[in-house]
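Technical note accompanying the year-one report. For the benefit of new consortium partners, we illustrate the data format agreed upon in the data management plan: each record pairs a sequence with a structure-token string. No post-processing was applied to the example shown here.
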Amino acid sequence: MGFLKFGKRSGGATAEADPIRQVTDTTELFDALGEGPAVIYKHSNRCGTAFRALKEVRNFASAHPEVPVFMIDVVRDRPVSNHVAQHFDVWHESPQALVIRDDRLIWDGSHLQVTAGALERALG
């Protein structure tokens, strides 16, 4: 399976309600990126800053359902994360967000740079 829903467990939200698709397979990710804009978010469950960034990415994804948002668990799916870093010629960081359009990187940011506002500006 290439995509998993990454849902909240509290507050009655279900995995189906989460606008972020967790990626576990590189081929399916690149097939799903298509030609329009998309966001790839690289997350680590071992990092407190990543949980803040995840909240920001989730806020962006909820406000912009027309933009696919994909998440990579950098610990569990490190080969996928490494492939993305190599393909888009970026240094691996976590948390990290990449904005992609037409298979080209148009913006990337890490740590405290990963905000809903930054993603919106990048897609401007």
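Partners are asked to follow this layout when depositing records. The first strand starts at residue 3 and ends at 5.
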